[in-house]
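Lab channel / #folding
Pinned by the channel admin:
"Please post every new chain as: sequence first, then the structure tokens as a reply. Keep commentary short and put observations after the output so the thread stays searchable."

First post following the new format, from NK:
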Amino acid sequence: MPRDLIAGRKDFVKKHKKKLRKPAVSDATRRRKLLSRRKFGVLIREAALELKVVRIRYKKLTTGRIEEYFVEPYSYRIRHVRTGIRKMFFAYDVKDKRIKGFVFVGIRKVEITKRKYKPRWKVEW
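Reply from TO:
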């Protein structure tokens, strides 16, 4: 390989070093996300056992929109899909008056409210 071509590459890399570098996601960031997802699961389980309504900010997997729901948690399930395993829970949406499934990956925020609910079905947690 000619020297001027090698020198040209080095100059290009020096000039565009910041643009070429991939933004690294640290292990601490990965751990923080994992712990927050675990914390969401614990909070939802706690609310289910105490029969309390949960307020959830959730990013829909189909549309990507972030929406807020008030739900009565009932069941935790692990589903096997083509892409792998999905940890999810099923809950009754108070506003829409129907059962909905939520994947833990899509949950952004969980808050246990003071409102209690009378179970319509058996709580399986």
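NK: Residues 27-50 form the longest helix (24 residues).
TO: also worth noting, The longest strand covers residues 66-81.
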